[in-house]
């Protein structure tokens, strides 16, 4: 009896590291994926700067084919940027509520984050509809639509991921002990927000 009782904790002790290792592997996979996305956006930003600074003696932003200058809605996009950045804080708040054992707080945080992300996309689409230029209007417009379009696609993917996390939150799948999918989705969402802040300052402001 003593021998059997002595073996039980040892077995449990072996099970815990396996679970921890699995969680670390899942998060590491997300970080590696984000690393590949960093390289993707780095190449897009490089192309943008080549277009912007590679042509000498050209005003910036350049003129469109009809001779009119490109105009970007800096103020509206600045407000949109604040919305997206705020969504990172609401997601962080939801994770903190989960850590405190408040599953309803997590659900509220996810809902607000998803609504903010959807609002960001709608404002971005409205901007496209009123910009007055298309991707065919010189290299500048092509680079602009490529950068913002790729980012918008990433926001959409992030919303899908967070929606799946919200569905699981309603099923009480997450707890203080297990929240790996939520954490992975959170990493991705924060990455998307950081990329947009850089994009806003590099493309819209300077």
What order do the helices and strands come in, and which of them pair?
Layout: H1 2-53, H2 74-99, H3 103-130, H4 138-170, H5 180-205
What key attributes describe this structure?
mainly alpha, Four Helix Bundle (Hemerythrin (Met), subunit A), 80% helix, 0% strand, disordered N terminus
Q: How would you sum up this structure in a few lines?
A:
The chain has 206 residues and is mainly α. The protein has helices at 2-53, 74-99, 103-130, 138-170, 180-205. It has five helices and no strands.
Terminal CA distance reads 75 Å
Poorly predicted runs are 1-23
CATH topology assignment: Four Helix Bundle (Hemerythrin (Met), subunit A)
Shape: elongated
CA-atom Rg in angstroms: 22 Å
CATH class: Mainly Alpha
Number of strands: 0
Secondary-structure element sequence?
Answer: HHHHH
Biggest sheet features: none
Write structural notes for this entry:
By secondary structure, the chain is an all-alpha fold. The protein has one domain (2-57, 73-205): Four Helix Bundle (Hemerythrin (Met), subunit A), CATH 1.20.120. Helices cover 80% and strands 0% of the residues. The longest helix is centred in the first third of the chain and has 52 residues, at 2-53. Helix 1 (2-53) runs parallel beside helix 5 (180-205) and helix 2 runs antiparallel to helix 5 (180-205). It is elongated. The protein contains five helices and no strands.
């Amino acid at each position: 009896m003593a021998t059997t009782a002595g073996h039980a904790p040892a077995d449990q002790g072996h099970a815990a590291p396996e679970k921890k290792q699995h969680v670390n592997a899942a998060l590491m996979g997300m970080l590696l994926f984000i690393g590949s996305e960093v390289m993707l956006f780095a190449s897009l930003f490089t192309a943008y700067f080549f277009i912007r600074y590679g042509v000498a003696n050209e005003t910036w932003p350049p003129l469109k084919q009809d001779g009119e200058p490109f105009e970007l809605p800096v103020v509206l996009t600045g407000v949109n940027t604040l919305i997206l950045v705020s969504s990172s804080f609401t997601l962080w708040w939801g994770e903190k509520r989960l850590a405190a054992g408040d599953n309803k707080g997590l659900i509220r945080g996810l809902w607000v984050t998803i609504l903010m992300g959807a609002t960001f996309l709608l404002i971005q689409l409205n901007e496209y509809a009123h910009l007055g230029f298309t991707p065919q209007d010189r290299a500048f417009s092509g680079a602009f639509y490529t950068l913002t379009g790729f980012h918008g696609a990433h926001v959409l993917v992030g919303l899908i991921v967070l929606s799946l996390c919200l569905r699981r939150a309603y099923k009480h799948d997450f707890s203080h002990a297990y929240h790996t999918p939520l954490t992975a989705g959170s990493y991705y969402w924060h990455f998307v927000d950081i990329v947009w802040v850089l994009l806003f300052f590099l493309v819209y402001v300077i």
